[in-house]
């Protein structure tokens, strides 16, 4: 198997394959890993979360690398602060954890666009995840930036990285083996000499499309372990059996339940996997949070389904570091098969005392457009990608001619949700799931100003619709007449310093609201917005994520490193009607639960 033949000096972490087993430093080895994504955890908490996973008994952690998190624009990449993936990997190694890295370029992960940068879709010639020249050139340029940062962390260089993935669940998307070979060869050519593998659903169709001869084949599944391992063995008669993603929980969509899985039942499946001699990566060990605008979305049964801000995933280590029932049961299972650390378990993270804050100032978003964005003049309402924008909202404005009575306003190619205003007054909401829906419009003799504030609610991260351009991709019609002549303002809302707050509650329509909360010393908290409708929250300038009364999520996790002793500033963008208070709570509320429907292949 490429990347697995050489044997390093005694004392290294080198992972090799002999027959049906792994060898680490020449000794028989079983991988028991837990998934954790550095980009979903504040860097100040990386050590804490890794220590909790080590306490559960795992000997390895696995992480994706989110391309779009590092490269919002072509040509340069950010690897500092919360994007310092090398620091995260080094820290895991210091805690005696091996590391599996899955660099993509596509990662799925319920992350915006599956990790693919939005700017890829600005090129009409771009075709994703295949042997398309513009796409391969972009991937190669990205790997030229990423891989040199990973090379010193490989086991052959004394680092903790023992294995690396070639793409991710490619058999669920396509069967361009030449594309996978390009990625494999590119990693090897750039100096990657660790074990390489593919990961696909444990069903024949997925394995036929996503595997590569000579690379270790692994599976992703959550149930029926005997059948899943049999499938892997059919497609790779010799080699270690590996469940690269053991789905013991699941993720949530806005408007659905908080999905969980019975801890005892999940622990039973984990025990069966380990008893069968398989290696396993628990997905997720710690889920974390889709801070900011970074959540992904699915397209299921013709419906667009964006993911919540929380990525708790019903994981053994909860979103705020809780050691759950699943943690203790999984630890007991692992202890039957491997030694687990005997140190006392980490204590519960400190929590802030409950409190509440009233709105102290407000300012209209529409009235603040000039402070938030530059204006672009276009014949028609082009999508975000045409302006180099990846995330956030985008504002479109035109003037309608009048008089006109009884017309119907429609938007072609809406992605994803538009708040429509006429002469500054809310006219209604349009959503991509209802493309046939229209809003009645009456235009007076002097004409009227039409505005659409469109939110990117998360690019699709799985399936055939990854090329998910945002904003308006078609046009805006009154009946069958397209409207031309537009002002467009991209609103990534990365900098809110230009806002000038006035009296509380004085801003109608979409508006920003400022509040203050005083705390004695930083600790974890959970923000609830009873009476508010939909929007986003910033704490001391950091974007915590979205809220929506559609649920299930009812609180936003506000981790300790974001708080400061004394007065803390909250800014809430409410797209509809604001509430009176924001509540600080001492426990999370992710909404009413329902048993997760784990896919069965």
Polypeptide structure, described:
An 8-stranded parallel β-barrel has the order 4-5-6-7-8-9-10-12, surrounded by 5 helices. The protein has an 8-stranded antiparallel beta sheet with strand order 29-28-31-26-15-32-27-30, with no helix packed on it. Strands 16-25-17-22-19-20 form a 6-stranded antiparallel beta sheet, with no helix packed on it. Helix 6 links the parallel strand 8 and strand 9 (about 215-220). The protein is globular and about 85 Å long. The two termini are about 25 Å apart. The chain has about 600 residues and is of the alpha/beta class. Helix 4 runs parallel beside helix 5 and helix 8 packs parallel to helix 9. The chain contains 10 helices and 33 strands.
Task: Give a quick set of tags describing it.
alpha/beta, 8-stranded antiparallel sheet, 10 helices, 33 strands, 32% strand
Unreliable spans: 2-10
Q: Which secondary-structure class do the elements indicate?
A: alpha/beta
How confident overall, as mean pLDDT? 96
The proportion of strand residues reads 25-35%
| Number of helical regions | 10
Rg on CA atoms, Å: 25 Å
User: Between the first and last Cα atoms, what is the distance in angstroms?
Assistant: 27 Å
């Amino acid at each position: 198997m490429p990347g697995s033949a050489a044997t390093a000096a005694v004392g290294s972490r080198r992972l090799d394959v002999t027959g049906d087993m792994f060898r680490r430093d020449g000794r028989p080895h079983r991988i028991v890993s837990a998934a954790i994504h550095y980009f979903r955890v504040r860097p100040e908490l990386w050590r804490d979360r890794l220590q909790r996973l080590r306490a559960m008994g795992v000997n390895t952690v696995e992480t994706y690398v989110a391309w779009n998190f590092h490269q919002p624009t072509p040509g340069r990449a950010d690897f500092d602060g919360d994007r310092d993936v090398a620091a995260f990997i080094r820290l895991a190694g210091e805690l005696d954890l091996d590391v599996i890295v899955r660099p993509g370029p596509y990662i799925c992960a319920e992350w915006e666009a599956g990790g693919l940068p939005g700017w890829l879709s600005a090129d009409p010639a771009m075709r994703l995840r295949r042997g398309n020249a513009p796409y391969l050139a972009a991937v190669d340029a990205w790997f030229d930036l990423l891989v040199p940062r990973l090379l010193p962390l490989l086991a052959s260089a004394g680092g903790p990285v023992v294995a690396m993935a070639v793409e991710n669940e490619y058999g669920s998307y396509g069967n361009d083996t030449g594309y996978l070979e390009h990625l494999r060869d590119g990693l090897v050519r750039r100096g990657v000499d660790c074990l390489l593998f593919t990961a696909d659903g444990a069903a024949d169709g997925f394995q036929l499309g996503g595997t590569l001869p000579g690379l270790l084949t692994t599976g992703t599944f959550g149930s029926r372990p005997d059948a899943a391992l049999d499938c892997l063995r059919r497609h790779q008669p010799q080699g270690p059996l590996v469940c690269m993603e053991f789905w013991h929980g699941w993720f949530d969509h806005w408007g659905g339940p908080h999905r969980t899985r019975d801890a005892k039942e999940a622990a039973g499946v984990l025990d069966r996997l380990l008893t069968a001699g398989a290696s396993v990566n628990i997905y997720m060990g710690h889920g974390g949070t889709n801070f900011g605008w970074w959540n992904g979305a699915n397209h299921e049964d013709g419906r667009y389904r964006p993911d919540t801000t929380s990525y708790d995933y019903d994981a053994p280590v909860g979103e705020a570091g809780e050691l759950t029932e699943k943690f203790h049961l999984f630890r007991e299972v692992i202890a039957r098969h491997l030694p687990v650390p005997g140190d006392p378990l980490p204590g519960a993270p400190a929590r802030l005392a409950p409190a509440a804050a009233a709105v102290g100032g407000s300012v209209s978003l529409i009235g603040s457009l000039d402070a938030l964005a530059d204006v672009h003049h276009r014949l028609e309402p082009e999508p975000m990608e045409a302006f180099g924008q990846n995330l956030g909202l985008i504002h479109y404005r035109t003037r309608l001619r009048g008089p006109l009575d009884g017309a119907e306003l429609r938007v072609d190619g809406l992605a994803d949700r538009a708040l429509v205003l006429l002469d500054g007054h809310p006219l209604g909401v349009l959503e991509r799931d209802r493309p046939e829906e229209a809003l009645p419009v009456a235009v007076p003799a002097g004409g009227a100003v039409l505005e659409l504030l469109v939110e990117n609610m998360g690019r699709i991260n799985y399936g055939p619709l990854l090329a998910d351009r945002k904003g308006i991709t078609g046009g805006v019609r009154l009946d069958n007449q397209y409207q031309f002549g537009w002002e467009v303002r991209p609103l990534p809302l990365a900098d809110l310093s230009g806002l000038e707050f006035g009296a509380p509650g004085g801003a109608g329509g979409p508006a920003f609201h400022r509040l203050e909360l005083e705390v004695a010393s930083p600790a974890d908290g959970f923000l609830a917005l009873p009476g508010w409708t939909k929007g986003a929250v910033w704490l001391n300038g950091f974007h915590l994520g979205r809220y929506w009364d559609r649920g299930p999520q009812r609180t936003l996790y506000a981790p300790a490193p974001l708080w400061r002793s004394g007065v803390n500033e909250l800014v809430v963008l409410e797209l509809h009607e604001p509430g009176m208070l924001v509540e600080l709570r001492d426990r999370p509320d992710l909404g009413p639960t329902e048993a997760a429907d784990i896919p069965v292949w």
